[in-house]
Amino acid sequence: xxxxxxxxxxxxxxxxxxxxxxxxxxxxxxxxxxxxxxxxxxxxxxxxxxxxxxxxxxxxxxxxxxxxxxxxxxxxxxxxxx
Length: 82
What we know:
Layout: E1 17-19, H1 20-27, H2 31-38, E2 45-47, E3 50-54, H3 55-65
Antiparallel strand pairs: 1-3, 2-3
Helix pairs in contact: 1-2
């Protein structure tokens, strides 16, 4: 019990932004690749020296860059995805 009453369990807090490292990990790419190739296409939130990436921006980027495998140029028949 706290001085204000019984402690209530905290509900999970939704994440609206991710750090650059988290954003890169969520896309399955390196931080270096993220900063060079992905971040320039995104709107970001600057808070002091911290650069935050809105989750919605990542989702939009994925939708813009998603293609059917048959539409991807330069992949030969022996290429494996994974």
